[in-house]
Amino acid sequence: WRLGLWPLCSGGCGQGRMIRHVYCKTSDGRVVPEAQCNLETKPLAIPPCGDKHCPSHWLAKDWCNTTCGRGVKKRIVLCLEIVNGKIKTRSPADCDLTKKPVEETTCFERPCFKWYTTPWSECTKTCGIGMRMRDVKCYQGKDIVRGCDPLVKPVGKQTCDLQPCPTEPPDDSCQDQAGTNCALAIKVNLCSHWYYSKACCRSCRAPHS
Question: Taking every annotated instance into account, which residue ranges of this chain make up the domain PLAC (predicted)?
Answer without folding.
Answer: 170-208
